[in-house]
Specification:
This protein is an alpha/beta fold and 238 residues long. It is elongated.
Length: 238
C-alpha cells in the first residue's frame, strides 16, 4: 500500500525550526502541545556521529530493518525490493529524515548506514537518520549527513529493509510516515504539523522567561531571595 503523501510546510518555517536545538523545541512543545509533554521523543541515549552539525528538521521516511538473517527471494527480487525502498525515500518532500526501527534482538546486529547508504540517501534528499540500529564507516559518511544511532559496529551482515511507510518506534518515539521530525545530538522529537508555526513564538517566550532567572543567577551576590524574585518575575512574563 502506498503511504499517504507527507504534508510540506513553509520552507522558511523549516529553516527557523532548524536554528533551535531539540531540547528547546521540546520545551516549546510543552507550551503549544501540552498533551504531548511525555510522548513523541526518544527516551534513551543515542550515539551522535556528528555532534557539531546543527539540528535536522525534515519529513519522516519510516523504515523497518533486519540484518541477523538472510533476506528471502531471488537476487532479482531482492534488487527490485531495494529499488522500491529507494523510490519510497525519493517520493517524500525534501528534506527528509530517515527513521529506522531495527527489528533484530538485540538491535544493531548489522549496520544499515555507512559510506554508500549515506551518500545514496543524501542524494535522495535526506538530511540524516535516527535509528535504534547501528552505523559504520563513520569517517566516510557523506559530508553533512547526520546519524543518531543505537550503536556503532563493523559489519552490515545480512542487512535489508523489511518494510517502509508504516509507523515505527525508535527508543520510545513513535513516528508515522511524513511526520515532521526535529533531531540533534540530544535526540529526536516529532513536531505535530498543527503546532509547528507556533513554536518560534513559544521559544521567544521561553527565552524571555528564562533570561530573568539566568541574569540574576549569574550575577554576583545571588541569593535565595533574589531567586524568589526572579521566579516571580519570570511567571509574570506572557
Amino acid at each position: 500500500m502506498t503511504p499517504p503523501a507527507a504534508t510540506p510546510i513553509d520552507p522558511a518555517l523549516l529553516e527557523t525550526l532548524g536554528r533551535f536545538d531539540t531540547p528547546t523545541v521540546c520545551n516549546a512543545l510543552e507550551i503549544v502541545a501540552p498533551q504531548r509533554r511525555a510522548i513523541g521523543f526518544t527516551r534513551r541515549a543515542l550515539v551522535c556521529v556528528r555532534p557539531e552539525l546543527p539540528a535536522m528538521v525534515g519529513y519522516a521516511a519510516t523504515v523497518t530493518y533486519r540484518s541477523a538473517v538472510p533476506p528471502t527471494g531471488t537476487a532479482d527480487e531482492r534488487r527490485a525490493r531495494r529499488i522500491a525502498y529507494y523510490e519510497y525515500v525519493a517520493s517524500l518532500p525534501r528534506p527528509s529524515v530517515i527513521i529506522v526501527q531495527d527489528l533484530d534482538d538485540p538491535a544493531g546486529f548489522g549496520a544499515m548506514w555507512g559510506e554508500v547508504n549515506t551518500a545514496v540517501h543524501q542524494g535522495l534528499g535526506a538530511l540524516g537518520v535516527v535509528t535504534n540500529g547501528s552505523v559504520r564507516d563513520i569517517d566516510q559518511f557523506a559530508p553533512g549527513f547526520q546519524a543518531l544511532a543505537g550503536s556503532i559496529g563493523p559489519s552490515h551482515a545480512y542487512g535489508s529493509p523489511v518494510g517502509w511507510g508504516e509507523p515505527v518506534d525508535v527508543h520510545g518515539m513513535t513516528v508515522r510516515h511524513g511526520e515532521l521530525v526535529h533531531a540533534d545530538r540530544h535526540g529526536a522529537v516529532v513536531i505535530p504539523f498543527d503546532v509547528a508555526a507556533a513554536i518560534p513564538a513559544a521559544v521567544d517566550l521561553l527565552v524571555r522567561k528564562e533570561r530573568v532567572i539566568l541574569d540574576l543567577a549569574r550575577a554576583p551576590g545571588f541569593t535565595i531571595e533574589a531567586l524568589r524574585a526572579a521566579l516571580k518575575a519570570s511567571d509574570e512574563i506572557h
